[in-house]
Amino acid sequence: MQIYLKEKIGNPELFTGRKKEMFKILQWIDNIQREISMSTVILSRRKTGKTSFLQRLYNVTFHKNDGVIPFYYEIKEENQYIIDFSKHFFLSFIFQYIAFKTRNPSYLNYSKQDYDLAVKCAQKEKQDHLIPFITDIRLAERNKSPGFMWDIARDAPRLIAQCLDERIVQMLDEFQYLNRKIYSDTQTKKIIDDLAASYLHTVEYKNAPLLITGSWIGWLMTDISTMLPGRLVHFPFENLSENESIEMIFRYADIEQSPVTEKSAYLMASLTEGNPFYICSLFRSQCPEKNLTTKEGIIKTLEFEIMNQGGIIKNTWSEYLNFALDEVNSIHAKRIVLYLSQHKSRKVPRYELVKELHLDMPERELEKKLKTLIMSDIVNSGGSRYTYQAVQDNIFEKVFIAEFGGDIEYFDPQRDISNNYQQLMTIFENKFKKIQGKLNQTTGLYAEYVLIDLLKYRAFQNKYNKQVQALFENLPEDFTFVQYERVWTYSASPLYKKNIQIDIFAKAKKECYSLIGEVKKRKKPFSVKEAQKFLEKASELISIEKLGMHLLFVYSAGGFYKNTIEFLKKHKIAWCQQKHIFAI
Questions:
Q1: Is residue 173 domain-resident?
Q2: Which of 183, 493, 496, 523 lies at a CB distance of 3.0 to 4.6 Å from 188, suitable for a disulfide?
Q3: At 512, phi and psi to the nearest 5?
Q4: What is the pLDDT at residue 344?
Q5: pLDDT, tens only, 288-302
């Protein structure tokens, strides 16, 4: 799929997982055509990949060209004058609209915020219905009418959609800054703290619904509940699942050229709890002796990231924490967070905090501190006004301990963090052994990734080529492993209606065999029914990718039924059940 809007993630191949979320939101976007989709808010803490998800969603929607026009806008974390903000918002929409309508993505790169240029482009591309809107907002700016100007900018997507009975999806990132970074004066002294309320009626229109996100759940939820009550559907956005975390780790290991093993990948996925930011940070860490193939190496890298000034994780969260704690930067607030961290498995009532921490302060002051901690996502509400719980994020918790634990006499950050990760690693190692033991095979948990690694780096080499070929049956006489253009676990683009998952796809040049593989690591033999399903999936892939020469293969740790072998022979599918392949 072509990338139209430049994505912050960088290399498009780094985008991993989110299959379930992408499927659901694409369905929601499809329903915009029938005007039945309500505006929606994606709820998730910072650094869970919301921006990457929105930008990929934008590119998928743009590429589909299926009746819904995407508009992506990030509200910046910087002070802005309302007139400048309105102009930038409006013209960003206009140029994105023209880009989609003309299928010319160069308009997405128009950074010059100029009304004359917008009019010129609209005329050139025969989008004359845009010109009255451009004229109106320019007049509002000349008359120094900021309220009217923002009204025009805010309602432009739905009103322009109405002109030609079109549909638009508005993806607004970092929505919480709307009430905190926009000012009514050029000196940016007078903040407009209720700007989100201006969307009260706009958000209800179904021809241009909003899909909004924010990094500060407490702020965002307060804005929504007080200024847009009942107007938005809540869409949860959790960390990656275990399988998607493993997929991301192996993909980063390849692209970043930083090796991992099956065991270390599992430990990393468990320790990071599937948080994309933490996984990425481990691979890009500047830890002097970084080694992600061993338990000790992972712990050392993570401790560097948490406690060293050069740590990506530490720098990111420290900046956030210092900002969030600015209003409650007291020893009491820090002790509250650390106490909750020590009791993270339960909800702690307020009276317990007062008693155990000897919080000698007026009730009103304590209420304010706790509310600020909740609003800043440093503490979670326990479900009622008088109960509280630690944020369920073990790495964030350790960053807090490393940053502020030294202020509390009974905390030793170095000792507590190191001991805790050693304990966690022991738990994860034991779990890994149990899961691996259930397989009763040497294939491991993630055999497809081991085979991908083999095909990428060794199978084509002279000293391995014949050795690997000897482990397969039913190979064509002219077959040989080659250096593939790309090897990966294949998922059909969201543009494609069917959910096609292929364990291994090794794409070769047209004159060589591309490989399409199915991997089964259980004891049970591979059946004819499974072979038929694999053949159907592979046929779809061949059609989608327009493959030339290709070879299908199946690896089955449990072997094959006799009639399955006959089926594979008939359809010229190679097979392998040799465990030795994982030792090459």
A1: yes
A2: 183
A3: -120, 165
A4: 87
A5: 989 999 999 999 999
Asked whether residue 278 is assigned to any structural domain, the reply reads: yes
Q: Any idea what DSSP says for residue 15? A: -
Distances (CA, A) of 249 to 24, 281, 287, 396, 584: 24, 11, 18, 20, 21
Helix (H, G, I), strand (E, B) or coil at 508: coil
402 plus 269 within the same structural domain: yes
SS (H, E, C) 55-73: HHHHHHHHHHCCCEEEEEE
User: Cα–Cα distance between 496 and 537 in angstroms, integer?
Assistant: 13
Q: Is 370 in the same domain as 487?
A: no
CATH number reported for the structural domain that contains residue 135 in this entry: 3.40.50.300
Nearest alpha carbon to residue 437 among 445, 427, 425 = 445
Which residues is 81 bridged to in the sheet? 183
Which value, in Å, is the radius of gyration of the alpha carbons in the chain? 27
C-alpha to C-alpha distances, 10 to 14, 15, 64, nearest whole angstrom: 7, 9, 21
- Closest by alpha carbon to 505, among 430, 554, 452, 580? 452
Does 407 reside within a domain? yes
Kindly report the pTM of this predicted structure. Answer: 0.87
| Residues whose CB is less than 8 angstroms from the CB of residue 167 and which lie 6 or more positions away in sequence, other chains included | 32, 33, 35, 67, 68, 69, 161, 207, 208
Domain that holds residue 523: 447-583
pLDDT at 443 over 60: no
**Contact criterion met (CB below 8 Å) for 379 and 370:** yes
Q: Of 389, 407, 422, which residue constitutes the final position of a domain?
A: 422
Buried b (16+ CB within 10 A) or exposed e, 101-124: beeebebbebeeeebeebbebbee
Residues 29-49 as b/e (b if ≥16 CB within 10 A, e otherwise) read bbbbeeeebebbbbbbbebbb
- Give yes or no: residues 212 and 175 share one domain: yes
**Whole-angstrom distance, CA of residue 288 vs CA of residue 297:** 11
Three-state secondary-structure class, residue 554: strand
12 DSSP assignment: G
Q: Are residues 203 and 117 in the same domain?
A: yes
* Buried/exposed 127-147: b ≥16 CB within 10 Å, e otherwise: beebeebbebbbebbeeeebe
d(CA 108, CA 459): 43
Residue 44 parent element (H or E): none
Q: How many residues does the chain have?
A: 584
- What total number of domains does the chain contain? 3
* Distance of alpha carbon 56 from alpha carbon 21, whole angstroms: 12
Distance from C-alpha of 72 to C-alpha of 235, rounded to nearest angstrom: 18
Q: What CA–CA distance (Å, rounded) separates 8 from 399? A: 25
pLDDT at residue 67 is higher than 80: yes
Using CA of residue 498, residue 502, residue 507, residue 513, what is the dihedral sign?
negative
Token pair of 95, please?
A: 């140029």
